[in-house]
Design brief:
Elements (H helix, E strand, L loop, with lengths): L2 H22 L4 H6 L1 H17 L2 H7 L5 H14 L4 H23 L2 H11 L3 E3 L6 E3 L12 E5 L5 H14 L13 E5 L2 E7 L7 H10 L1 H4 L2 E2 H8 L24 H14 L4 H13 L2 H11 L25
């Protein structure tokens, strides 16, 4: 999709939304209450419509001076014209889940609470009800470059959620080629149980996925990982850069293995990598072979035997953007 055309549509939607908000200043309180569904629809469309558009959608919407107004009426009927009992049931389920969690916390002895605090420092914990792993919310801050769907308020058996969401996404034509969202993890934030469905290498119809997320937001509180972390957790944490391995030539130097180890150890210490020295010595001693030891040393310092550095691969998801018309 032409980024220029998409930027043009974004600018037009921004102008439309600004004009709409300004028009509300003249409304009375009673009128604003009556317009609540329209205001909600306009806000959702302004924030998320662009993500749901493919190239043809962009060209279509650019035909109008006020594309926001064109789709607002349709979207308002989409989000208000159906039975909300399912969403209300989910809301009550979430409240029960939160109340149960708080009661369990209050019922713990001081020793239990101390153990719970310690367990929070573990990156991964098992939920006895399912195979879904539990992580800390802060673990998400180390997932920059990854993408996934986060659902909020997921009380009950998490495996039932995983199976149910995969089934729903398959029926909606979002999961392609028989794929599934796997390696789902659970975490708690603000007293609410949440699930992260990583995209991984799963083939997805991103356009349909974006619309599905908007349509089910009242039910699932769905948001993308790349939005949730900056907005709810304070942003992603940058990984600390790994120190560069020092260079050491083997040709023309004393070939005695202990002399080679001594020179490598000195270079590692100068490079601030002292923690690697003992590990290198132990591995070389256990190898029992001169040439194996040289190759092990070449893992810690750059030598003629070190393999060339592999090109870095992007960790960002490249999902197939397939749209059925």
């Amino acid at each position: 999709m032409s980024s220029e055309r998409k930027d043009t549509l974004k600018k037009r939607l921004d102008e439309n939304y600004t004009a709409f908000i300004e028009s509300l200043q003249e409304k009375t309180v009673s009128e604003l209450i009556a317009m609540a569904p329209e205001i909600t629809a306009a806000q959702q469309l302004h924030e998320e419509l662009l993500d749901a558009c493919d190239e043809e959608d962009v060209e279509f919407l650019l035909r109008f001076d006020n594309p926001l107004e064109v789709v607002c009426g349709y979207w308002e009927s989409e989000i208000t014209g159906y039975d909300h009992s399912g969403e209300m049931g989910h809301m009550l389920w979430e409240i029960r889940d939160r109340e149960l969690y708080e009661k369990e916390q209050l019922a713990q002895t001081p020793e239990d609470v101390g153990g719970a605090v310690q367990s929070e420092n573990l990156t991964e914990r098992k939920n006895p009800l399912s195979d879904v792993k539990q992580i800390n919310a802060d673990d998400l801050r180390h997932m920059e470059g990854q993408e996934g769907l986060i659902l909020q308020g997921c009380g009950g058996d998490p495996q039932e959620w995983v199976d149910g969401i995969n089934r729903e996404l398959t029926e909606a034509g979002i999961l392609l080629d028989g794929g599934k969202l796997e390696n789902v993890v659970s975490f708690r934030h603000d007293g609410v149980t949440c699930l992260l469905f990583p995209f991984g290498d799963t083939e997805l119809n991103i356009g349909k996925f974006a619309m599905w997320r908007i349509q089910t937001h009242d039910r699932y509180g769905g948001t993308w990982l790349s939005d949730y972390v900056p907005n709810r957790l304070g942003g992603f944490l940058q990984a600390e850069p790994q120190p560069q391995k020092p260079r050491m030539g083997l040709v023309g130097q004393d070939g005695n293995i202990y002399a080679v180890l001594g020179r490598a150890s000195m270079l590692l210490k100068e490079a601030g990598m002292q923690d690697k020295i003992d590990e290198m010595f132990q591995r070389c001693a256990a190898s029992g072979d001169y040439y194996k030891a040289l190759n092990i040393i070449s893992e810690y310092v750059e030598t003629e035997l070190s393999p060339p550095a592999a090109p870095q691969k992007s960790t960002k998801k490249k999902a197939r953007n397939t749209h059925e018309r």
